[in-house]
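Quick one, T. Sequence first:
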Amino acid sequence: MVQQSSSDVTPSVAEVLHERYAARLPDALEDLGGPEHGPVELPLHVVWSGLRTYDLDRPRQCMGLYRTVLAEGQRDDITGFLNRGLLLAQWPLMRTMISRHVREAWEAAFPELAHRASAAA
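Structure tokens:
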């Protein structure tokens, strides 16, 4: 019988996705310095089809921008397009609209997000 070493174990899809999203996280929520109001145009590497310009003063568009950046943005996109106050305000609802892997990476790194979600429930 041949035993595999732990270095030969292939990570699960969930582990790969968690690592991918965790690597993009800012060091602190205070690093989220994106705008609070007005139109925002996302670059093609974040959104390559469909709506690229979002109006942060329109709740559905704001939520759409945040969902897109959380899922597709790199660290610089996250810190440049997302705003700490808007993320905190939207998190209780938004966490139900994003992938489990994104949600778990953010809530593991920033417990205040998980706390806000449980407080809103």
